[in-house]
TrEMBL record:
PROSITE patterns linked: ABC_TRANSPORTER_1, ABC_TRANSPORTER_2
GO cellular component, one term: plasma membrane
Protein name: ABC transporter ATP-binding protein
Primary localisation category: membrane
Subcellular location: Cell membrane
SUPFAM superfamilies from the UniProt entry: P-loop containing nucleoside triphosphate hydrolases
Length: 326
């Protein structure tokens, strides 16, 4: 597999009155070309912070305190995202990497039509296109997400939530980025609509050849639509493996708990045991393995030492951060 985005040793702190708290610790993660990489974890685990940090949209009190993020161009060139100058960064964000945030559908401008919002993006970044070409491209983009051209003249309030969300996805694809990051892109929609949009997106990724980082707390959606999954807890990645592998054979007790928090997609029913307790606050992160207060398998070293993310003895191609496997 060829990497398109590599994150290494990434650390993010949030400044608070009581001092800095760690929001992301030692994140190592690779997105391969053409794949859908799912990021899972309860709220507060650092998923969104990771998306903001990687795209340089993190704002104070969040600060990147260490690590590197590289984008790999199709030819092999490496772009150091964390040191891009602001002007390059703006172009980079639409043309090479784009983002659809949680509730993005509410960020459409209410006083502008779909047509003008789509063509504005094109006008800003593709000045060589003439007006008519921009309109043609807008129609094409809407078509990609299954919206007919007669909706071009609509204002956002005239569209359903699902349609507005699809318009946002069309905008994210407008300049043919190599990477699309989706942070809870469909959370506000009903389940049927969520699946429809995600299915379309996964098809488009093959057709248009981009890679996706897909973030959601809904692990059943991740298993269905991702190729690989990274599971986060307390600002760290605690397990990373192929989606099917994680589903069949989760190694980290937290992954196992997450998988038991939803009904089986197929096959025998799973017991819905969930995970006792609630995720930790950044300002009160447990020592050692941050999961230890909730872990039914905690033993001697767990409260004292942080387990490092490493391949288990029998499983190259996956990694787990748990003393049971080290
Ligand atoms: Fe549980 Fe210990 Fe593994 Fe953490 S390191 S998940 S506490 S067994
Ligand atoms: Mg979030």
């Amino acid at each position: 597999a060829e990497p398109v985005l590599t994150i290494s040793g990434l650390n993010v702190d949030y400044g608070t009155d009581a001092g800095a708290v760690h929001a992301l610790r030692d994140i190592d993660l690779t997105l391969n070309r053409g794949e859908v990489l799912g990021l899972a974890g309860e709220s507060g685990s650092g998923k969104s912070t990771l998306a903001y940090a990687v795209t340089r949209l993190l704002s104070p009190p969040g600060v990147i305190t260490g690590g590197e993020v590289h984008y790999h161009r199709p030819g092999g060139d490496r772009v150091d995202i964390l040191s891009l100058a602001p002007r390059r960064l703006r172009a980079f964000r639409w043309q090479e990497l784009s983002i659809v945030f949680q509730g993005a559908m509410n960020s459409l401008n209410p006083v502008h039509t779909v047509h003008s919002q789509l063509t504005d993006v094109l006008a800003a970044h593709r000045p060589e296109l003439r007006k008519r070409q921009r309109t043609e491209r807008a129609v094409e983009l809407l078509g990609l997400v299954g919206i007919s051209a007669d909706r071009l003249a609509a204002y956002p309030h005239q569209l359903s939530g699902g349609m507005r969300q699809r318009v946002m996805i069309a905008m994210a694809l407008a300049l043919e980025p190599e990477i699309v990051i989706m942070d809870e892109p469909t959370t506000a929609l009903d389940v049927v609509m969520q699946r429809q949009i995600l299915r379309r997106l996964v098809q488009l990724r093959r057709q248009l050849d981009f890679s996706v980082v897909f973030i959601t707390h809904d692990i059943s959606l991740l298993i269905e639509f991702s190729d690989r999954i990274a599971i986060m807890y307390g600002g760290r990645i605690v397990e990373q493996a192929g989606a099917a592998e994680i589903y069949r054979d989760p190694r980290h007790p937290y992954s196992d708990g997450l998988l038991h928090s939803f009904p089986a997609l197929h096959g025998p029913r799973r017991e819905l045991t969930g995970i006792p307790g609630s995720p930790p606050h950044l300002s009160a992160m447990p020592t050692g393995c941050a999961f230890h207060p909730r872990c039914g398998k905690a033993f001697d070293p767990c409260a004292g030492r942080v387990p490092l993310l490493a391949p288990p003895a029998d499983g190259p191609g996956r990694a787990v951060a748990c003393h049971l496997h080290s």
